[in-house]
Amino acid sequence: MDNMALTLAALAAEPALGLRVRAAEAGLDRPIGWVHPTELTDPQAFLEGGELLLTTGLALDETTSPGYIRRLVDAGVAGLGFGVGLSHESIPQSLVDTAEEVGLPVFEVPRKTPFIAITRAVSRAVAADEYASLVRTGKGQQELTRTAVGKGGPGGVVRKLAKLIGGWVLLLDSAGRVTEASPASARDFVDEVREDLARLRAGTLVTTVGEHEVVLQTLDTRARGVLVVGTDGPLDAAGQHIVNTAVSLLSLALEQNREHVAALRYLRTGLLDLLVGGQDEIVLSALSTVWGDAPDAPWRVHAFAGPPATRQAFHALLEAETEAHEVFFAHSGTAVIAMTVADPRVSERVVRLAARVGGMHGGSSEVVGGAEFAFGVRQAEQAAGVAKARGAEFVPYDDHAGRGFLGLVDSQAAQAFSDSLLAPLRQHDETGRGELVASLTCWLEHHGHWDLASARLGVHRHTLRNRMRKVAELTGRDLDSPGVRAEFWLALQVSARS
C-alpha cells in the first residue's frame, strides 16, 4: 500500500529549509507523523512515536547527548532536527556518533531556518496526505458500491478490493473453504491462515504470512464467513476504511444471496411436488422461465438420501456443475431427487457428483415419461433404500428389480426358460431380418410406450409395432397380457446376466 506521508528524505530535499543530514542517512525513508519542538532532555512522556523532534540542545553537551539520543529511540521518534547557531555552533559529536550507531536520523538546522518553517512544511504535507486519504477512501467506497449493486456480485467486490488495496483477497465460507479469490494465486495462502481462522470467533485478527500483513475480518451474516486481506505492509487509514466498506457490502450481498438461494430451493421442491402430481407441462414451463431450459422427456429419476449437511453439499454441487437442459433436482423429505434426460452419460455424471460428496445412498429408476414421473420417484427411492441396506453408494432400479426376483428362482431353470422363450426371436435376428430382441427390450423398458421406445430406437412407431407383432407371432404369446410382458422381461434379464 502506497504511503503518501512526508518522509524525512522529502523534508531534507526542500531547498528553502537548508537542512543537512548528519547521521543515519539510511533511515531517511521514515514517514513524519508530526513535528514537536522541545528542550527537555527526556520528552518521552509527551511523545506518541513517529515525530520529528526539534531542539537547540540548550541542556545538552558531549556527556549528556548519548543518553538523550537513546531515550529518543525508546520513544520511537522518526528523527531529530538540531538547530545550530544558538546554544551550540555545531552539533555535539557524541550526539552524532550515537545517532549513527543506533540509526536515528539527525538533521542540522541552520540558524536562518526557523523551526516554524519546518513545522509548516510538515503540516502542509500532513493536510495534503489527509485530504488525499479522504479522496481515496471516498472513491474506493463508490467503486465497491457500484460493483456490489451491479452484476459483479461478491466475486466482483473481492476483485475490486484487491485492486484498490494493491494486495490479495480471499472470501471464505463458514467451513473455511474459498468461495472467491483475487488473484487466483491467493488460494495458496489459505493453509497459512488455518490456525488463525480457528482462533477467530468474531471481529478482526491481524497476523503475518511471510512478508505480508494479513487482516482476517468476520462478516456480519448468519452463515459465518471471513474476509482475508493481505498486503505488503500495514493498511493505511484509507485502506482500512475501504476494507471495512467491503466487509459491509459483502455481508449484505451474501445475506441477500443466501435468502435468494433458499427461495429457489423452496421453488424447486414445489415444482417437484407438481411433477409427482402429474403437472409436468406446468413444471416444464416454469423451469424454462426461471432457469432458461428444462430436461426433455423421457427421464431417469435419481434419489440420494443422507444427512442434511451432505444433501445440502450435493445440492450445491448440482447447482454448480449441471445444466438446466439436462438435469432438474430438488430436496424432497430426506432425499435429493434428480431428474435427468434419458442419456446414460448424464445419469452417470450425477452419480459421480454424489460420489464426490460421499456419505449418501442413491438409486435410479427406469426411463419414464411425464405421466410416469411419480412411478419413477418411487422406483428411485426403493433402489436408494436397497443401496442403504447393502451398504452400497448406488443401486439402479433395474439391477434391484432383476436381482430381487431372480434370487428366488433356480438359475438353471431360469436360464432354460429364457433360452426357450427367446430362441425364436434370436433365430429371426440371426437371419438379418430384424432386431426383435433389442426392440422388445426397449419397448418393455418404456412400459409399452410406443412413441418413447421408437424414439429411443430411432425407428418409426409403426416399424416398432410391426416388430412386436412379429414377436407375438413367433412366440405365440399375447404381449397385451401383463403376465406375458413380465415373463419376457424376466427372460431378458436372465439372458443379460448369462
Describe the structure using short key phrases.
Udp-n-acetylmuramoylalanyl-d-glutamate--2,6- Diaminopimelate Ligase, Chain: A, domain 1; Beta-Lactamase; 17 helices; 52% helix; five-stranded mixed beta sheet; five-stranded antiparallel beta sheet; alpha/beta
Secondary-structure blueprint of this entry?
Elements: H1 8-12, E1 20-23, E2 34-37, E3 51-55, H2 65-75, E4 79-83, H3 93-102, E5 106-109, H4 115-149, H5 153-165, E6 168-172, E7 178-182, H6 194-199, E8 204-209, E9 212-218, E10 226-231, H7 237-276, H8 280-291, E11 299-305, H9 308-321, E12 327-332, E13 335-341, H10 344-357, E14 361-368, H11 373-390, E15 394-396, H12 397-406, H13 411-430, H14 436-445, H15 450-457, H16 461-475, H17 482-497
Parallel strand pairs: 2-3, 3-4, 4-5, 14-15
Antiparallel strand pairs: 1-5, 6-7, 6-10, 8-9, 9-10, 11-13, 11-14, 12-13
Helix pairs in contact: 2-3, 4-5, 4-7, 5-7, 7-8, 9-10, 13-17, 14-15, 14-16, 14-17, 15-16
Write out the CATH superfamily name of the largest domain. Answer: Reverse transcriptase/Diguanylate cyclase domain
Using the coordinates shown, work out and report the CATH topology of the largest domain. Answer: Alpha-Beta Plaits
Derived structural class: alpha/beta
Poorly predicted segments: none
Number of helices: 17
Shape: rod-shaped
User: What is the level-2 CATH architecture name of the largest domain?
Assistant: 2-Layer Sandwich
Overall mean pLDDT stands at 85
* CATH hierarchy, class of the largest domain: Alpha Beta
Number of domains: 4
Number of strands: 15
Strand content: 15-25%
Physical arrangement of strands within the biggest beta sheet? 1-5-4-3-2
Biggest β-sheet description: 5 strands, mixed
